[in-house]
TrEMBL record, chain B:
PROSITE patterns: ABC_TM1. It comes from the Bacteria. CDD domains: TM_PBP2 (cd06261). InterPro entries: BPD_transp_1_N, MetI-like, MetI-like_sf. PANTHER family: INNER MEMBRANE ABC TRANSPORTER (PTHR30465), OLIGOPEPTIDE TRANSPORT SYSTEM PERMEASE PROTEIN OPPB (PTHR30465:SF74). Belongs to the binding-protein-dependent transport system permease family. The keyword Nucleotide-binding does not apply. Its main location: membrane. Pfam families: BPD_transp_1, BPD_transp_1_N. SUPFAM superfamilies: MetI-like. This is Oligopeptide ABC transporter permease OppB.
């Protein structure tokens, strides 16, 4: 066996917090061989990122590391900053999850790609610029020459990640550490970035250490896999073995965490609860007091839909497709054109005040379980707040009883009423958000990416919960998501959106088994058959 | 860029007009008039004075007359200091206030940024706590306390500096007023820079810079300080306008002939035209500095660049 390029032995990471020390990584061993792709898989909090941050000397100020990490015979742990700086960004480089914030918004991408070139390679200004252009072409940024002067905010998420990759490749590294590099991207963009990484690795021969929570990617992409849980490696082995013959229960759990099952169809006679016709949402900017050009963007173009009692309509689309905007417009949370009918009443065009009467029937659950719950209110107050508005007559005792019921309905211990949101995990917070909607006994719930911020195993629980509540309370859902497998598990009918328009609309079975539009097929392949997409890419390049 | 500036300057005209109008009528609502004194004037003298300054005309007529004169650059005679025009009084006082203010501003920017940066880079160390303590002190202790104490120590006890007076703008006469005026600003800037800097140092792109082995100097100056300047810049716009147009307290304590003192005296003695003159000067400064802030902002942050 060749000597490993990076050999991590018994790494421990702990953080000093106000609540006492927290051990994030507890004795991890890992190896990376030259030219191989290694994946570290784990859910949030498993310590997968922190193990690498510690190796690279990038821990937060309150973090400490013990153990050994040897890069080509050199011990990285405890190395002086100036020595470490000769390796970081030159021999070992990193790309991160957040393409929006990982680049400095105040500098052009040329400046940022040239920085490590000049610092490590000592290149002249002109030489660095030439190399930057070459790199942008390498990562397949169109019109690379014109894009050099662009600022990060002028690029899309996928392009920014390409710029990060260009930075990472600048000094011909031995090892590229990619920390969830595609998690924040749409599936089709994810497939492109992964194909690019695979191709670059083949051409440039570096090793890749890929940190992810998504086993689907690992299958298509990695040679070897480490599965991490609670700061330790629970299983390791070649990717095929991990997928075909996992030994550990936790690995099996992760593998089985893809949302499954489908929704029982509603009877055709079920009454119509909500319909929307020719919905148009226009955003405008500019056109101020002193002139300036007025720009109008149609975020939603002539979309119609209908919803029966107990039915779930899944709205699928990539970022910018207008799916969330549509959801909000239907609930009259945004000014829009079009006619919306709820329970035989036209609700479009109603004033805020008139809309008040329908609000309790039309509830919404948002994506971000951290941002959507007020940190200064107890769970009990959050859950019962809607009752104060919609049923002001009921006594405090009744409110409390209703809160207990609602929390039980989402499988939370009613005793949590007196605690605050920050004491709960993402999945628990999303349950609280659902309880807050359910307590009002609504008719329709618009769920805007409610599972996107959650780990797969937690996601699965929330999906089951949503299905159970739906049957119990005869709810109708509009379920908005970019995640096809979640939509498949929850929806009766599916609408695929792109650029504000409906590309395809039909029963879940039809859309998933026999998509008619190219766009839907493209989306399906990137989501469910990444392996063949990458293989195809590799073949076209070879 | 030039088109943008022109558009903004054009946009300032209605604002200025509004300020002039509101100020004109507000000061007239205040009870009393410019010729009320402890001992009332002879009615005929008063009537003559009022007639001379057109104060016997209906208010709207006075307003349009004032507006008309103003458009020709004439701010009228001072009602109280009857030998001077408002223009002359402002031309005398403004340079004094502006010199004081710009020195205080310079002090605030230089010391504020340095202290804020050091505190952020040594967060939660004794240096940080010292800077915070000084900053809190600078903000909480009002300058009508700081100024006399400075005068007492350096002027009276140590006899190093003159306790007051303009002295033709001699540097020794400026030291204490500038310190007293600038100290609270140093404190505010230090706090702003410290907070923004701490946030910048924790940002994802600084993590990227560290992961790419950039030297500390580049991480701090290039990737943190520039972003950390933004909140300080927005604060400094209105603050600069305030500093340059004089401080009543400092000018009073150190006996300096600036326009801050002029403004308060004018308001107390219902010197309508002088009040209007100072209001206009302050408004112009605020408008100009807000424009400068916006231009600086665009220079620092490409995301807010203007077409």
């Amino acid at each position: 066996m060749t000597d490993p390029i990076l050999d991590i032995k018994d790494i421990h990471v702990s953080f000093d917090t106000p609540d006492g020390p927290v051990d994030a990584v507890r004795g991890v061993n890992m190896k990376v061989i030259p030219g191989e792709t290694v994946a570290i898989v784990g859910e949030s909090g498993s310590g997968k990122s922190q193990a690498m941050m510690a190796t690279m000397g990038l821990l937060a100020d309150n973090g400490t590391v013990r153990g050994s990490a040897i890069y080509r015979g050199t011990q990285l742990i405890g190395m002086s900053k100036s020595d470490l700086n000769k390796i970081r960004g030159a021999k070992i480089t990193m790309i991160f999850q957040e393409p929006m914030t990982s680049l400095d918004p105040l500098y052009s991408i040329e400046f940022q790609i040239c920085e490590p070139l000049r610092v490590h390679g000592g290149l002249s200004k002109q030489a660095a610029r030439d190399r930057a252009l070459e790199l942008l072409e390498l990562v397949q940024i169109p019109n690379a020459k014109d894009r050099l002067k662009a600022y990060p905010h002028e690029l899309s998420g996928g392009q920014r990640q390409r710029v990060m990759i260009a930075m990472a490749l600048a000094n011909n590294p031995d090892l590229l550490i990619a920390d969830e590099p595609t998690t924040a991207l749409d599936v089709t963009i994810q497939a492109e970035i992964l194909a690019l990484l695979a191709d670059l690795q083949k051409r440039l021969g570096m090793s890749i250490l890929f940190i992810t929570h998504d086993l689907g990617i690992v299958d298509a992409f990695a040679d070897r896999v480490y599965v991490m849980r609670a700061g330790q490696v629970v299983e390791e082995g070649p990717a095929e073995q991990i997928f075909n013959a996992p030994r550990e229960d936790y690995t099996k759990l992760l593998l089985g965490a893809e949302p499954d099952g489908t929704k029982d169809p509603v009877p055709e006679t079920a009454p119509m609860v909500l319909s929307a016709n020719d919905m148009v949402v226009t955003f405008s900017s500019g056109g101020g007091f002193l002139g300036g050009k007025l720009r109008e963007v149609k975020a939603v173009k002539d979309v119609s839909l209908s919803l029966q009692k107990g039915q779930t309509l899944g709205i699928v689309g990539e970022s910018g497709s207008g799916k969330s905007t549509l959801g909000r417009a239907i609930l009259q949370l945004l000014p829009s054109d079009g006619r919306v009918v709820f329970a035989d009443n036209v609700i479009s065009g109603l004033s805020r005040h008139q809309m008040q009467a329908y609000r309790r029937d039309l509830q919404m659950v948002f994506q971000d379980p951290y941002g959507s719950l007020s940190p200064r209110m107890t769970v009990g107050e959050i859950v019962t707040e809607g009752l104060l508005v919609h049923e002001p007559g009921i006594s405090a005792k009744d409110r409390d009883r209703r809160a207990t019921e609602a929390l039980r309905a989402v499988d939370l211990d009613p005793a949590v009423r007196r605690r605050f949101p920050h004491e709960f995990s993402g999945g628990q917070r999303q349950r609280i958000a659902i309880a807050r909607a359910v307590i009002l006994r609504p008719t329709v719930m618009v769920l805007d990416e409610p599972t996107s911020a959650l780990d797969r195993s937690v996601q699965k629980q929330i999906i089951t919960l949503l299905r159970d509540i739906q049957t119990e309370l005869e709810l109708s859902y509009i379920f908005i998501s970019h995640d096809l497998s979640v939509v498949r598990a929850l929806s009766d009918t599916v609408m695929v959106m792109k650029n504000g328009e409906v590309v395809e609309h039909g029963s879940t079975a039809n859309i998933f088994n026999a998509p008619t539009s190219d766009y839907t097929r493209h989306l399906m392949r990137a989501a469910f058959d990444l392996k063949s997409v990458l293989k195809e890419h590799a073949n076209t390049i070879a | 860029m030039i088109r943008y500036i022109l558009r903004r300057l054009l946009g300032a005209i209605p604002t200025l007009f509004l300020v002039v109008t509101v100020a004109f009528f507000l000061i007239r609502i205040a009870p009393g008039g410019p010729f009320d004194a402890e001992r009332a004037l002879e009615p005929t003298v008063l009537a003559n004075l009022n007639a001379y300054f057109h104060l016997d005309k209906p208010l709207y007529e006075q307003y349009f007359r004032y507006l008309g004169n103003l458009l020709q650059g004439d701010m009228g005679p001072s009602f109280f200091r009857r030998d001077f025009s408002v223009h002359e009084l402002l031309a005398d006082g403004l340079p004094v206030s502006m010199l004081l203010g710009s020195l205080a501003l310079l002090m605030a920017v230089v010391f504020g940024s340095i202290l804020g940066c050091i505190a952020a880079l040594r967060q939660n160390s004794w240096i940080d706590y010292t800077v915070i303590a000084i900053a809190t002190f600078g903000i909480t202790v009002p300058n009508f306390v700081v100024a006399p104490i400075l005068a007492l120590i350096f002027g009276v006890a140590l006899n190093l500096l003159p306790t007051g007076g303009w002295g033709g703008g001699h540097p020794a006469n400026l030291v204490m007023p500038v310190i007293a005026l600038g100290l609270p600003q140093v404190a505010v800037i230090a706090r702003l820079i410290r907070g923004a800097m701490i946030e910048a140092l924790r940002s994802d792109h600084v993590r990227t810079a560290r992961a790419y082995g950039l030297p500390t100097r580049m991480i701090v100056v290039t990737h943190s300080l520039r972003a950390a300047c933004l909140p300080a810049v927005s604060y400094l716009g209105p603050a600069a306008a305030g500093l340059l147009t004089g401080s009543i307290v400092i000018e009073q304590v150190f006996g300096l002939p600036g326009i801050g003192r002029e403004f308060v005296n004018a308001a107390l003695s219902r010197d309508y035209t002088l009040v209007m003159g100072t209001v206009i000067v302050i408004a112009v400064f605020v408008l100009i500095f807000n424009l400068i802030v916006d231009i600086l902002y665009a220079a620092l942050d490409p995301r807010v660049r203007y077409e």
